[in-house]
Write a structure and sequence with these properties.
Blueprint (H helix, E strand, L loop, with lengths): L3 H19 L4 E5 L2 H7 L10 H14 L2 E5 L6 H13 L23 E4 L3
Parallel strand pairs: 1-2
Antiparallel strand pairs: 1-3
Helix pairs in contact: 1-3
Amino acid sequence: MIEPSIAKALAMKEGLSQVQLRKLQPVILEFDCQDLIKTLHGLSHPAWNICSIVEEILLTGRDLGLVEYSFTPCSSNFLAQNIAKWEACFNIYGILDRAVNMDYPTRPVCAKIEIRARPD
């Protein structure tokens, strides 16, 4: 079992990978881990177990340029929370492919992050 803080940091890192891959800029990454968001904004130091992941997130974000990190409480992102519970139930991880029938998962799923274009 992976520690939650590590899983959340890895989910953010994967979100940035998808931003790069899909060339989505500008972008806002909304996340339900307030400690991680504070760390990315420079308001706190990362926990020892996610230091290297946070460094990678910050470097990738700087390389991309137009990336914003935003805190969103779990209660306001019902869909992501339910998909995350589904993911945990079936021990699946990765990227959510909307083309896959959710009744019969054949590809990995990850919905702990939301990627969307930032309004101009």
